[in-house]
Amino acid sequence: MNKSLIATLAQHTDEVTSIVLTSDTNKSILFSASLDMKIIAWHTKLYDALFEITLLHPVATLRLTKDNEILLAIGDSEIKQMSTL
Amino acid sequence: MPANEADGPDVKIKKMHTMGKIKTNTDGEHVNDQEQIQVFKELADKSKEIGADMIRYSPGEGEDMECLFSECCDVTNDNNLIQFEDGKLALWGLKSHAKISEIDLEKVSYVHCGFDGKEYFAGFEDGSIKVFGSAKLEDVTDDYDLPNIGSKITSIVTSPDCLIFSAESGKVILYEYAFDYDDESDETHFVLHEGDGKNAISCLKISVAKNYVYGLCNKIPDDKKFKHEVVMVWNLTTKRLAHKHDLDIDQGHSSNKYESEENDDTDGVLEDVSKLMIHHTEDASMMFIRGCFRKGVEILSFDDGVKIDEMPKMHNNSITQIILKYDKELRE
Hints:
The complex is a heterodimer. Chain A is mainly β. Chain A has a single domain (16-83), classed as Thrombin, subunit H (Beta Barrel), CATH 2.40.10. Chain A is 0% helix and 48% strand. Chain B is mostly beta strands.
């Protein structure tokens, strides 16, 4: 098993609470959520930040729909629904 | 709780990716292929639409805003959202943006979306379980002959063949759909773990090959200090405990959302233990748990609990979630 460090994704400014990975291998994207109220989408080969979304509340958990088309951000008092592609 | 409110987008999007940027790996080879560039160009373009669709759950005036936990909602097979909060089980249409159905439930202790997303299972404080269809939340409990074990349900998992649930008493029960319990004199289920009446099992998960189920045992010593957390693994073929292993949990932090009020002295989000122990989706023989003083990951064999490998000091702070990315190219 290859255990070398591939990348360190250091863009959040507070505790990371949830990460999800799309299951489509051709369009694999990593989403991370944090108490800093941001969701960041990451390239899973280059590990660059693709874009970030700033919300009004911290996010506790991320969920993807089974078709990977909608990302749900579950946070304090509300759930936001976003299109991933 | 009002239905969806079209408040408009309240998110800001900051585009980070620079198209056409060429990066090299450690060997100096270009790693940006044209296909990937096209995919992420589409993503960057479409990302402008993010935030246009929103479902807002607003509590009434004077009501407390309760933090939603991951266990409280899930996506069904039809890509609708099923949500449990404040004694209400609600089904939302993610495409219609409307509430499809809602039912009131009292003294629910656990909710679980079935393995295929077609049914929803609610466990109650009295030890009973009710089953609802995820299309309209119709009660289909009578399709099952589920036992009541007389103790608060703490966790439920399902597979195509069986339903497994745990109770506050520490019992873990296996209910196989195909087994004809009517032909047995007394049995309506198999007891995977008898329990000792004081150490509850929670956070049950089932391995990808459906041959193991594992869960967390909240070991509370007699002096009620320094709660000890143990991962327990049961073999579903032999119907016996396969092994158990210590799990690094911050002392005093609760893994159980229902205990959150008792441990309300922590900042941020309580640790979600279900994010700290996972199985390999491609290699069914391995499970990954947080270890190495909470800053690394241990890889264990499902069969006998032997430590296959470990990755210590992965992080400077405590790890809060482990996921696996299966890289076919690296594997080959």
